[in-house]
Design a protein that fits this description.
Elements (H helix, E strand, L loop, with lengths): L3 E2 L2 E6 L21 E9 L5 E4 L4 E4 L10 E7 L1 H11 L7 E8 L4 E7 L1
Antiparallel strand pairs: 1-2, 2-6, 3-6, 3-7, 4-5, 7-8
Length: about 120
């Protein structure tokens, strides 16, 4: 299992960056870097999911084994987009990025970068 494929970073998004959500347009902005949708996925580990702030933003709490499996999407992104994403998401002050294991809809298990 790897979180890097062909020089790209494999990431898991579960909130407003998913397709059909309000911030997904950033994922398609080539001025921010290269992104490619890979698959829908479900976390192997359960986490508490909280919707908060005046913008109803989703947050995962780092309490593995509590909560529920999280449905999200896997994207491959380049270094340029990862730098932008870290700034957009407030890494490492607002969230921490770590390797997590997910199950793709094809039942393939992979490791990717995700918030913890």
């Amino acid at each position: 299992m790897t979180s890097s494929v062909n020089g790209m970073h494999r990431i898991f998004v579960y909130g407003t960056l998913k397709r059909g959500q309000p911030n997904h347009f950033h994922m398609e902005n080539r001025q921010r870097g290269v992104t490619q949708f890979i698959s829908t996925a479900l976390t192997e580990t359960t986490y508490p999911l909280v919707i908060s702030t005046m913008w109803n933003l989703p947050f995962l709490l780092y309490a593995p084994g509590k909560g529920q499996q999280i449905l999200g999407e896997i994207f491959d992104i380049d270094d340029t987009f990862l730098e932008w994403l870290d700034e957009f998401e407030g890494h490492p002050e607002m969230y921490v990025r770590d390797k997590i294991n997910v199950n793709l809809v094809s039942n393939e298990k992979i490791s990717c970068l995700g918030p913890t």
